[in-house]
Amino acid sequence: MASLDSFRKFIAQGITKPIISAIAKTPLTPNLITAIGFIITMGAGALIVTDYWLAAGIVVLVAGLFDMLDGALARATGKTTRFGAILDSTLDRVSEAILLVSLLAVFARDGLVTECILAGVALVGSLLVSYIRARMEGLGVECKAGFFTRPERVILLALGLMLSQFNYAMLTTLAVLTFFSWFTVIERMVYAWRKLKE
């Protein structure tokens, strides 16, 4: 799990480092970057409910980039704050909820019961993945265990939206998202059990 987390950090740094160098010279603050990313995600939700799914997928990826930039900017400029961390974490959760609830609304409108169920179950799973980490860290135990964290969920959802014109692409995306989100919930619960029984 440590090597997987290191790999994620390596990829994120490779993407964000040149951008952060430029942003650090502007008046933009980490919290403002967080807010901009959230507003972009709301735009993606609007595109989903109006059936512009290819555009929504692209916008989700752009919002995901902002999600990587806020923390990196805070660290690079020495502007990390406890409130900034809470704001970022909260808006991350709301952003995922916006996307999945938007999809759920479209599926409900179109009478797609299976897709509705998967979107709902995926939403609960994704929130639980983050909740378990927050609860563990509230107890003073770092918890980055798990295969399928937020970056993977965002990328998968974006790809599903961009490929939605193909038959069963979104159904498959939601099935994979649901399965691996709950798989990660189980991974983190096992990790929690092992760490907290010590």
Task: Please describe what this structure looks like.
The structure is a single chain. The protein has a single domain (2-196), classed as Four Helix Bundle (Hemerythrin (Met), subunit A). It has helices at residues 2-23, 30-49, 53-77, 82-109, 113-138, 150-162, 169-196. α3 runs antiparallel to α6. It contains seven helices and no strands. The radius of gyration is 17 Å and the shape is globular. By secondary structure, it is an all-alpha fold. Helix content is 82%, strand content 0%. The longest helix is centred in the middle third of the chain and has 28 residues, at 82-109.
Essential attributes:
single chain; 198 residues; Four Helix Bundle (Hemerythrin (Met), subunit A); 7 helices; 82% helix; 0% strand; globular
Q: Would you tell me the overall average pLDDT?
A: 88
Number of strands: 0
**CATH T-level fold name:** Four Helix Bundle (Hemerythrin (Met), subunit A)
Instruction: Write down the secondary-structure element order.
Output: HHHHHHH
CATH class: Mainly Alpha
Note the gap between the termini: 19 Å
Runs in which pLDDT lies below 50 for 5 or more consecutive residues are none
What structural class do you assign from the helix and strand content?
A: mainly alpha
Give me the CATH superfamily. Answer: CDP-alcohol phosphotransferase transmembrane (TM) domain
**Number of continuous helical runs:** 7
Q: Which CATH architecture?
A: Up-down Bundle
Helix content: over 70%
In total, the number of domains comes to 1
Gyration radius, in Å: 17 Å
**Percent of residues in β-strands:** under 5%
Shape: globular
- Largest β-sheet summary: none
